[in-house]
Amino acid sequence: MHGTATGQRQPALHPLTSTDLRSVDTYWRAANYLSVGQIYLQANPLLRDGLIPEHIKPRLLGHWGTTPGLNLIYAHLSRRLAEGDSDIMWVVGPGHGGPAALACAWLDGTYSDVYPAVSRDAAGMGRLFRQFSFPGGVPSHVAPETPGSIHEGGELGYSLAHAYGAAFDNPNLVVACVIGDGEAETGPLAASWHSNRFLNPARDGAVLPILHLNGYKIANPTVLARIPEEQLLAYLRGTGHRPHVVSGSDPAEVHQQMAAAVDRAFDEIAEIQDQARGHTRRAHPEWPVVVLRTPKGWTGPATADGLPVEGTWRSHQVPLARVREDADQLRALESWLRSYRPADLFDEAGRPTSHVDALVPAEGRGLSATVHANGGLLLRDLVIPDFRRHAVEVPTPASTTAEATRVLGDHLREVMRANPDRFRLFGPDETASNRLGGVFDVTDKAWNAATVDTDEHLSPDGRVLEVLSEHLCQGWLEGYLLTGRHGLFNCYEAFIQIVDAMFNQHAKWLKATNAIPWRLPIASLNYLLTSHVWRQDHNGFTHQDPGFLDHVVNKKAEVIRVYLPPDTNTLLSVADHCLRSRNYINVIVAGKQPQLNLMPIEAAEAHCTRGIGLWEWASTDQGSTPDVVLACAGDVPSLETLAAADLLRRYLPDLRVRVVNVVNLMRLQSPTEHPHGLSDREFDALFPPGTPTIFAFHGYPWLVHRLTYRRGFHPDLHVRGYIEEGTTTTPFDMTMLNNMDRFHLFMDVIDRVPGLAPRAAHLRQRMADERLRCRAHTRTHGEDAPDIREWTWPH
Amino acid sequence: MHGTATGQRQPALHPLTSTDLRSVDTYWRAANYLSVGQIYLQANPLLRDGLIPEHIKPRLLGHWGTTPGLNLIYAHLSRRLAEGDSDIMWVVGPGHGGPAALACAWLDGTYSDVYPAVSRDAAGMGRLFRQFSFPGGVPSHVAPETPGSIHEGGELGYSLAHAYGAAFDNPNLVVACVIGDGEAETGPLAASWHSNRFLNPARDGAVLPILHLNGYKIANPTVLARIPEEQLLAYLRGTGHRPHVVSGSDPAEVHQQMAAAVDRAFDEIAEIQDQARGHTRRAHPEWPVVVLRTPKGWTGPATADGLPVEGTWRSHQVPLARVREDADQLRALESWLRSYRPADLFDEAGRPTSHVDALVPAEGRGLSATVHANGGLLLRDLVIPDFRRHAVEVPTPASTTAEATRVLGDHLREVMRANPDRFRLFGPDETASNRLGGVFDVTDKAWNAATVDTDEHLSPDGRVLEVLSEHLCQGWLEGYLLTGRHGLFNCYEAFIQIVDAMFNQHAKWLKATNAIPWRLPIASLNYLLTSHVWRQDHNGFTHQDPGFLDHVVNKKAEVIRVYLPPDTNTLLSVADHCLRSRNYINVIVAGKQPQLNLMPIEAAEAHCTRGIGLWEWASTDQGSTPDVVLACAGDVPSLETLAAADLLRRYLPDLRVRVVNVVNLMRLQSPTEHPHGLSDREFDALFPPGTPTIFAFHGYPWLVHRLTYRRGFHPDLHVRGYIEEGTTTTPFDMTMLNNMDRFHLFMDVIDRVPGLAPRAAHLRQRMADERLRCRAHTRTHGEDAPDIREWTWPH
Fold first, then answer.
1. pLDDT, position A83
2. A420-441 per-residue burial string, b: 16 or more CB within 10 A, e: under 16
3. Which residues are in the Xylulose 5-phosphate/Fructose 6-phosphate phosphoketolase N-terminal domain (chains A, B) (predicted)?
4. pLDDT < 70 regions, chain A
């Protein structure tokens, strides 16, 4: 091992006085005691009596392995918080770190502040123990219910991205991010190391990664713990970090090393920030990282059943699994608990003693009480300039064109200008491609690496975060929102599914926080999905996927919203609404290509407010019951529907056609399923029972069937949408491949309106021929099929 | 820059003779010419006439930026393939590398072999150009249609994982993996660098990563191109690699550097392999990596419209975008094309000249013709021992218990034993947790890093791949399957959604290959999802998510299959079927906890073959039309359904209850939608029209509604399933939270069977009370609610 030669290990420094050492160690022992108690005890929390089986929980669930390391880190961060002048937040990356976060929050008094029943005394300690991994209680990982956390410890890989999101625009905050060596094997975490290339030490806070190498994941050693230390240190240096290695299993020695490493790290952060804030920016600052190498399950049983436990994967969960049944194990547990000397830690009433309290900060000042982890407390409204000033002129429907996202970009520029400290745009290198480039009039892309003469819009001060990783975009944005700021993630529609799992976890977090009174609402997570399924002219099949919508609607109605604005002005209105909302996940799907403008801004706003509406200007039912309803949701489906309506007016002028457009997809659901659901009465007024409806939908057709399942009109509903047919081809050909083109919609009407088929057989054939002619044109000439723009309107 | 000091750059070596240099450069120029032609030309492919606008495609689509670098790499790999004794395959990671792969495959003759219309002459060249990014043609990235590739260049991040999957168990293969510096920012790619820790140089092939730093992604510089070179080299060394840097823009100089680097890399690979195969294993072999730093859009236009293009992000797509309209640009394009000296490259007939052919290997020997990229050619059936020998005894239903996945693990052990060269198991550190540990009787976990005394089942020779990254598991498995082998991915159900996007791309790949005659079928991608939504006793809400099923069924019916075996013997039968199948994605969901055994092996096999069936042994309808159908899919729903049927027999003995179990979810769909769909006649025989059906389902309930949408029984169908309610709690409490418990199913029957409600009101109340009693028990005592095991059977 060459670590000592090349790492920044500081074994000679022993910064802790014996008093400091005692307070840090006492706190640590207290946290460890409380952690073991949570896993095992349902009674006798202070060990006033000898342990008997009845004191033990009937099912032993929980995770010990990572806990002592987390407690150690917390103790040292608390010491630093008391001494330093930085705000500190911690993020617990390792899985199943719940016992540690709960123990420390209870020791600090924060837990009892938010959950008074779990008081800071013997009774509360009993409740703390009992609720852990108990039915209806708290999970074994850090959760929304845990004070001091913005990071769920369930699914792994996102801690460091969350930490960076929290640090952006938080100049006085240091986010200490504990990274488990298991978690470090995940893709999102591996990509996150380079996040420092996007951080501005002058204006942003800092992230202090603490890589905790306890050596094991569930059942295996970890990669980073088992490669030569010189490789590990080279790896970290390669990501722009200066490593400080802490390694050992003797507590006093590790405390001294850890205190030295933490002090050194905070000093280095201060030095980088001082330089940057003094306008002498260093080109490539080397940020500190602490590497903490301690045994898994440290201070727990060395062996069980004759097999090694401490320092192996066997300490991952419950090291002694049969304490209730096995008297030897029960004695081993008791001596394990007593090894922390509980009488030294807690007084008669079960309150932490003054030895423990030496490291506990004043009320509300503990690490677990940071307001940054309860972003709603810090949230300030966005200043949103009037979006109507960007409205496009629409003298008559479909007479002008615009690129919807480009116009939205102009609006976002004004939002960016008005909120220089609390709004950011995130995207995987697609902001310009998605035509939101207007924002670069007032800001740049965040970049803290080398630049060359030909670069444009790169600056450490940029507020647009572009990295070719949907995971980082999502993780950074989540961290930014959870600490009380606002943002928008723009992405190609097909590739947003890269973050499906992260979306799940954020949706679950929001659902859980709705039931936690002390967590105040945060800004919604806004997705703008563009470069969508219908317009992948050269990318083809791999880029054609609208499945994120199906994924989103699986989550609780109370936290999800989906919008499909059909044109530019409706996109402006929808975006304004989403940016103002709280505690939702808003998904907006909108095209970036030139497309017809349909609605003047006032009408667009009214239409979006309703979320679903009859387009009288394209309908011929004149307020009577129509012969057919043409419904549509999404920009391309709306275009094809309007074109089909035009064909119907031309060839079947007597047919009463109603055109209905859906912007807010949730309006389709029953109000019993989603708060935005249209009442059945309103729904039936739009879609009269017994009238055939041909619905052209942006995504997979069955989503419309699903959303309208409780409506009474199944037999009348016929949905066209993406049926997983695609290739490199023109926009019109894509609608043809998936049977959603205007001619096919026309044919659907003939097939569905009772009595129409016999007399319109020649028209049906004509449309079928027209489709083939268009297909042939596209594939011969390499250009889109002849469009039909010269529509005449009924009104 | 300290690169030269610390990197393994070899500027002094000039291994190419002037003849070699000429042949490599000529090939490169030819490939570049063909690439530019694909982007621009629809006629006049050989430039026999001066360019006029009519020669230019009406829409200019495609990507030039990455292409010259890829062509260079291909030329040098071809040189090496001709000289060396290794099989070589290349994987094209950079996005939109289509023009390069197509140009080189055409030059090699491979393209014309599989697509005879695109002949290796002027006419074929014309077709090659025209089809590119043309409606109905080929996309701008490497696709299934591209010979020599196992890797779709659409979604980014998976190249290196695919390369390792291809290398496993392929001792003579070197997989040269080109990694784009954009792609390198993604999480999956960042995690993939450490894949070498899982590769055995004695038995596996090798991966040669070629990191192509052209400096830009779509609109931004890339991180790895803009950090100090000493950091870049440290980063690569930290991942276990020895970097060889090639850097420049003078072709002759770059050719010499590149040839030297490639030779050196192959020598180092041979040295590592020789040592390992001579049984003198090196603990941590340092694998070569080539870092290729050349300008983006190299050899293209230096400027356009007065702005720099070559060497900037502006060369990403079409460097000269207005050649059809702008005479100056047309002239610039012509001089760009002529700069490759086409007369030196192609003869009168449009065939490559002998100068080009010097680097073209004999027919069928080119890089693009490798059989490894058409895995179906190499596929050998799995030897599958009889699964029946692992069957559990089931004297009567529900009288014994087993852990289904543990028994499957015994079967997988035998599969592993019988196929030591072509079957692997993949999992994110969960194989033991998922109780498949039986396989460790005959193999180990692949591990080529340090070991300690307490380790178990770690070996370089292990055939179980465990890494805490679902992305790597999926990517490795895909690469392994696509090169003609077999495997199974076991994963926690909730976290499989981490690879939703990768699943999409593999499903799209399979769908596309079904239409490509020269691609032979490969083994199916098998998922075993366990630790499922209903059994997350201490993990809680974050681990409760059955949404992958909804995600899967969005893809084409021809490639997806979903199985929900209700017990151990049915799991064995389903797994056997899946392991034998081809070109599908099979999803199996099965619990790992002890559960009741329901069916003897013969009955289980028959039931799984039908995929859906009436459980007569639990039904009381005696062949008549039932009063109610209790349907179920999944192990926990089946248990609750059987318990509800027992309660009904006890309390409403006259009620005719039919129990139907669904193993193969696709049987629910109409045969017009899925080839496994039950005919309407068979369906109506199981679910008689007009009879209420209470369906207890493993996942989100609406999936059953969706699958049965075209069946006639909507008003009669009532589905219970996961409704996104969860917490840390007992298995029984989970069913209660989601209204799928036996008591609720009983109440549903009372509510749904006509005429039952009035006379059974007291029973409904009794069940409601029982539910609350069970909930209270769970939450008070911390153990599961009292189970009902003492069932009596009607027959």
1. 83
2. eebbbbbbbbbbbbbbbbbbbe
3. 17-377
4. 1-13, 786-791, 795
Closest CA to B90 of B10, B162, B4, B183: B162
Convert the pLDDT of each residue in B361-399 to its tens digit.
887 789 999 999 999 999 999 999 999 999 999 999 988
Residues counted in chain B? 795
- From-to residues of CATH 3.40.50.920 in chain B: 613-781
pLDDT tens for each residue of B650-672: 999 999 999 999 999 999 999 99
Average pLDDT over every residue of B157-170 = 98
Q: Tokens 């020779």 appear where?
A: B461
**Contacts B716 to A, Cβ<8 Å:** none
Region A612-781: CATH code: 3.40.50.920
Residue A100 in contact with residue A71, Cβ under 8 Å?
yes
From A192's Cα to the closest Cα of chain B, the distance in A is: 8
Q: What is the dihedral of CA B132, B134, B136, B138, to 10 degrees?
A: 20
Angle (CA) A679-A680-A686 rounded to 5° is 95
| Whole-Å CA distances, A692 to A129, A713, A760 | 61, 9, 17
pLDDT number for residue A7: 46
Full DSSP string of B49-94 = S---GGGB-SS-----TTHHHHHHHHHHHHHHHHHSSSEEEEEE-S
Strands A303-304 and A307-308: antiparallel
CB atoms near residue A674 (< 10 Å): 21
Beta bridge partners of A670: none
The overall average pLDDT reported for chain B is: 94
Predicted ipTM beyond 0.90? yes
pLDDT score at B5: 38
Round to whole Å and give the CA distance between A167 and A748.
55
A547: tokens are 């499945």
Contact map slice: A 221-280 vs B, CB within 8 A? 221-223, 226-228, 231-240
Quote the crossing angle between the two packed helices A18-40 and A122-131, to the nearest 10°.
60
User: Residues near A776 by Cβ (< 8 Å), separated by ≥ 6?
Assistant: none
The CATH fold assigned to B387-596 is Rossmann fold (3.40.50)
Considering only the top CATH level, what class is A401-596?
Answer: alpha beta
Contact assessment for residue B569 and residue B601, using Cβ atoms and an 8 Å cutoff: yes
- The dihedral sign for the CA sequence B16, B18, B22, B25: positive
Question: Regarding the domain delimited by A3-373, which CATH topology (the fold level of the hierarchy) does it fall under?
Answer: Rossmann fold (3.40.50)
pLDDT at B528 over 90: yes
Tokens for B13?
A: 């070596």
Q: Examine the pLDDT at B552 and tell me if it is beyond 60.
A: yes
Residue B427 touches chain A, beta carbons under 8 Å: no
Phi, then psi, of B728 in degrees rounded to 5:
-75, 105
Q: How far is B138 from chain A (nearest CA, A)?
A: 6
Touching check for B135 and chain A: CB below 8 Å?
A: yes
Backbone φ, ψ for residue B304 (5° rounding): -150, 135
> In the structure, what pLDDT confidence band is assigned to residue B275 with cuts at 50, 70 and 90?
very high
> Residues of A numbered 273-292 whose beta carbons fall under 8 angstroms of chain B's beta carbons: which are they?
284
- Residue B783: list chain A partners with CB under 8 A: 58-59
Per-residue pLDDT tens for B175-233?
999 999 999 999 999 999 999 999 999 999 999 999 999 999 989 999 999 999 999 99
Delimiting residues of CATH 3.40.50.970 domain(s) in chain B: 3-361, 387-596
Model confidence over A598-642: pLDDT tens digits? 999 999 999 999 999 999 999 999 889 999 999 999 999 999 999
- Residue keyed to tokens 């014994």: B400
Q: What is the pTM of this model?
A: 0.97
**Using CB atoms within 10 A of its CB, is residue A670 exposed (0-12), middle (13-18) or buried (19+)?**
middle
Domain B3-361 grouped into CATH 3.40.50.11030: no
